[in-house]
């Protein structure tokens, strides 16, 4: 009687994570030769503005995304401040996505400038994921005059870590037989879900590297970390079965704006109408695919409040969307003297899938990706 070896092992997955380098700033430098080689900060100047992106020249001064623009200006007084142009960035992102689609339809966008690709089977017949990633980067460079970094690995977790390994304009591959050794010396904070607080919590228990987690047995892990232990153990050993999910359902389209100075409630209307226009354009005029309109406000004391409405019939124009959002101001029950620092408008509860625009040598006898 033949021996039963059980079901065959699942095929090795080949995942690529592509991350555009300093995307917004790089688009600005590409389109304006006078900005090339100079520290570029994509942000509106102002006391309340924050940095959307910084070129690598600006990052050398310590400037980072989400930093207050005034601090960026102090760090690098000679920086060139450029207001963001999201319409242009989305167009470039779509061009990047079209390059991806030459190779696979299994594309999971994370933002305008990064995405996962499952190239276990690819359209172009290239023998390895490494060749696919290299070809994609070359096509982006040749056709769009931009650079991208890529990570290649057997799963999404590892591919994302790898794409950051040789930034900017780099390619890094983690072969299946290299996974445990690659992870061993990484700070435990590189594991998704381990933030600064969790990292300190782990360090206090002597767990500072991914290798420290690898050396702990499952019983000890569960005793220390409870339900989180299974996920922590799996990622520390390079195990991540999460699939690349193409064409995710868009959960919300929104825009918000921080005012130059605090304003009373009735003075928020012009900003709300401008934001409604932005949201309408961002949804490609397809607001009727959503079911809910959302209004967001933030008081000068940084208290956030939201109001939402699911109308019988969704707005048919940006003006109607603005009317619905402004109408929800009547539901803000705060004293007349209350001042506000921010307003936002959003569409949520979409009924259908809406695509998000986007933004290495083999070893002998070893499976390669």
UniProtKB/TrEMBL annotation:
The active site is at 114. Its cofactor is Mg(2+). Binds 2 magnesium ions per subunit. The record marks 24 as: Substrate discrimination. The keyword Kinase does not apply. Keywords: Cytoplasm, DNA damage, DNA repair, DNA replication, DNA-binding, DNA-directed DNA polymerase, Magnesium, Metal-binding, Mutator protein, Nucleotidyltransferase, Transferase. The keyword Nucleotidyltransferase applies. Its EC number is 2.7.7.7. InterPro entries: DNA/RNA_pol_sf, DNA_pol_Y-fam_lit_finger_sf, DNA_pol_Y-fam_little_finger, DNA_polymerase-Y, DNApol_IV, IMS_HHH_1, Rev_trsase/Diguanyl_cyclase, UmuC. It is found in: Cytoplasm. Mg(2+) binds at residues 19, 113. GO terms for molecular function: DNA-directed DNA polymerase activity. Belongs to the DNA polymerase type-Y family. Monomer. This is DNA polymerase IV. It comes from Terriglobus aquaticus. The lineage of its organism: Bacteria, Pseudomonadati, Acidobacteriota, Terriglobia, Terriglobales. The gene is dinB.
């Amino acid at each position: 009687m033949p021996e039963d070896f059980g079901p065959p092992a699942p095929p090795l997955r080949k995942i690529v994570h592509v991350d555009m380098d300093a995307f917004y700033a790089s688009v600005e430098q590409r389109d304006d030769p006078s900005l090339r080689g100079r520290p570029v900060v994509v942000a509106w100047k102002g006391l309340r503005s924050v940095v959307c992106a910084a070129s690598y020249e600006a990052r050398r001064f310590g400037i980072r995304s989400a930093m207050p623009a005034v601090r960026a200006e102090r760090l690098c007084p000679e920086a060139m401040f450029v207001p963001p142009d999201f319409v242009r960035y989305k167009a470039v992102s779509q061009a990047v996505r079209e390059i991806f689609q030459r190779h696979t339809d299994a594309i999971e966008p994370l933002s305008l400038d990064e995405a996962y690709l499952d190239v276990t089977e690819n359209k172009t017949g290239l023998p390895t994921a490494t060749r696919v990633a290299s070809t994609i980067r070359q096509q982006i460079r040749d056709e769009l005059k931009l650079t991208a970094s890529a990570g290649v690995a057997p799963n999404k977790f590892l591919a994302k870590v790898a794409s950051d390994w040789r930034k900017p304009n780099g390619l890094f591959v983690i072969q299946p037989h290299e996974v445990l050794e690659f992870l061993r010396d990484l700070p435990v904070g590189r594991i998704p879900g381990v933030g600064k607080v969790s990292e300190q919590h782990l360090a206090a228990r002597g767990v500072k590297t991914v290798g420290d987690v690898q050396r702990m047995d499952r019983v000890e892990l569960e005793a220390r970390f409870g339900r989180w232990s299974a996920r922590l153990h799996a990622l520390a050993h390079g195990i991540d079965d999460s699939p690349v999910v193409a064409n995710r359902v868009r959960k919300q389209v929104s825009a918000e704006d921080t005012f130059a100075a605090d304003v009373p409630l009735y003075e928020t209307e012009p900003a709300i109408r401008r934001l409604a226009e932005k949201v309408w354009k961002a949804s490609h005029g397809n607001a009727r695919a959503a079911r809910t309109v959302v209004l967001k406000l933030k008081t000068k004391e940084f208290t956030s409040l939201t109001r939402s409405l699911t109308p019988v019939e969704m707005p048919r124009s940006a003006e109607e969307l603005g009317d619905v959002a402004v109408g929800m101001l009547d539901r803000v029950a705060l004293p007349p003297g209350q001042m506000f620092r921010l307003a936002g408008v959003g569409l949520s509860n979409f009924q259908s899938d809406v695509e998000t625009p986007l933004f290495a040598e083999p070893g002998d006898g070893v499976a390669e990706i």
